[in-house]
Specification:
Blueprint: E1 3-8, E2 13-19, E3 25-32, H1 35-47, E4 50-55, H2 61-68, E5 72-75, H3 78-84, H4 96-109, H5 122-155, H6 157-161, H7 169-177, H8 189-198, H9 207-216, H10 224-261, H11 265-269, H12 278-288, H13 298-304, E6 310-314, E7 317-321, H14 328-341, H15 346-357, H16 362-383, H17 393-402
Parallel strand pairs: 1-4, 4-5
Antiparallel strand pairs: 1-2, 2-3, 6-7
Length: about 400
């Protein structure tokens, strides 16, 4: 028997379809997303002699249990499933049961086109959980900081520009102590200097410069009641931001320790000059995973990282379009690596400068540089050796050319 199954994943229940090796439907069912349902599903698929299971996501409890049951799991991109629907239905209909059948049929006929999932080691899963949680918290912090800045602009613009970042620890401490113009009425250079000393401010601005910023900003015209209301809003936003900033700092520390102890951590860290770049290196390690066969060449990695364009050709018409279907987290991490490296790495600076000279804007030039870095990254990742500038052919040729 060479049976295949498709599972249309959902949050509460999953539609399942099992096909014979000749394409006939053997079984259709719906299972609940609970301990009993998932266990029964895995046991039933094994009992039916199912060889392959296809679904539209590469991770989660369902995927882990299917892998633990010894089943071959194929993760098929939703865009591929969407493109395959017209093969079986000209009316354009869609249902959970139909999608389960479609996934099972793709697993039966096109299994050679999809790479089976391989479980990552525990260290990689832990690092992925930490980096993605930090990324979500950072997004929340940015949203709250924007809300706080907008609130200050409405009635006290000076407080938003005293410090560089409104969500920095020193800025939050300032707003907690002086949440409205009325609270800062007696604030002068001496009081500001004492405040900065108590909070260990290490910025380059003196207390008189900060006071001048505060006083030179436009003055609000809010009445007494509005002022009190907005003061409460500022305190609420500060109260929400302070623990968030602390948790992000704690997670960053955990990530730094985790990536240095990861088997691939030192390999990726070797690409960065700044020791504080552990978060970006950790994000790349977590998104790459442990399966080297997942990316058989650097072109496959560049496509998944969104650093290579999508070619559209028809007759004499040829276009290169921005790649949207990719791992957005990996793309962001590689872009961060590229943007940071152009400031200190001569080879990266040369590629970026030549791209800008050809008329590329900054994001396009960063993608070109990111594509170049991925050739290096793929090689050292496959060979499991840290980056060595002496072995970097492009860098050595550039150095020799410039003498």
């Amino acid at each position: 028997m060479d049976r295949s199954a498709g599972i249309d994943w959902a949050s509460e229940r999953h539609a399942v379809c099992v096909l014979e090796d000749d394409g006939g439907v053997l079984e259709r069912t719906v299972i609940e997303h609970d301990a009993g349902g998932l266990s029964a599903l895995c046991a039933r698929l094994v009992a039916l002699g199912v060889e392959r299971v296809a679904l539209e996501r590469p991770d989660g409890l369902l995927v882990e249990q299917l892998l633990a049951a010894g089943l071959v799991v194929l993760a098929i991109h939703p865009n591929q499933v969407k493109a395959a629907r017209p093969r079986f239905s000209v009316a354009g209909g869609k249902s959970d049961g139909f999608d389960a059948y479609l996934l099972a049929e793709l697993a039966r006929t096109d299994a050679h086109r999809f790479r089976p999932l391989e479980p990552d080691r525990d260290e990689t899963k832990a690092l992925r959980a930490l980096t993605r949680a930090r990324e979500d918290l950072v997004a929340t912090r940015v949203g709250l900081a924007n809300q706080l800045r907008a609130e200050l602009e409405r009635f006290w613009p000076g407080a938003a520009c005293v410090f560089a970042d409104v969500d920095s620890p020193i800025a939050l401490a300032f707003l907690e102590r002086y949440p409205s113009p009325a609270d800062a009425r007696g604030l002068g250079e001496k009081r500001m200097a004492g405040f900065l000393a108590r909070h260990g401010y290490c910025g380059r601005r003196s207390s008189d410069e900060l006071i001048e910023r505060l006083r030179n900003a436009p003055q609000g015209t809010a009445g007494e009641l509005e002022l009190e209301a907005r003061r409460g809003v500022v305190l609420a936003l500060v109260a929400a931001l302070k623990p968030l900033v602390e948790e992000i700092k704690r997670l960053s520390s955990e990530i730094a320790a985790a990536v240095r102890s990861h088997p691939d951590g030192l390999i990726l860290l070797s690409l960065f000059r700044d020791p504080k770049s552990t978060v970006t290196a950790a994000r790349i390690v977590a998104e790459l995973g442990d399966c080297r066969a997942r990316y058989p060449n650097d072109a496959a990695l560049a496509a998944d990282a969104g650093m290579s364009p999508v070619a559209l050709e028809s007759g004499k018409r040829k276009l290169a379009c921005f790649r949207r279907a990719c791992d957005h987290r990996l793309r962001d991490a590689v872009a961060t690596l590229a943007d940071a490296s152009r400031h200190h790495h001569p080879w990266a600076a040369d590629i970026y400068a030549r791209a800008r000279a050809r008329g590329c804007n900054h994001p396009h030039a960063i993608r070109i540089l990111g594509r170049a870095w991925l050739r290096v990254l793929w090689r050292i990742w496959q060979d499991q050796v840290p980056y060595d500038p002496a072995q970097h052919g492009g860098l050595q040729r550039l150095t020799a050319t410039k003498g």
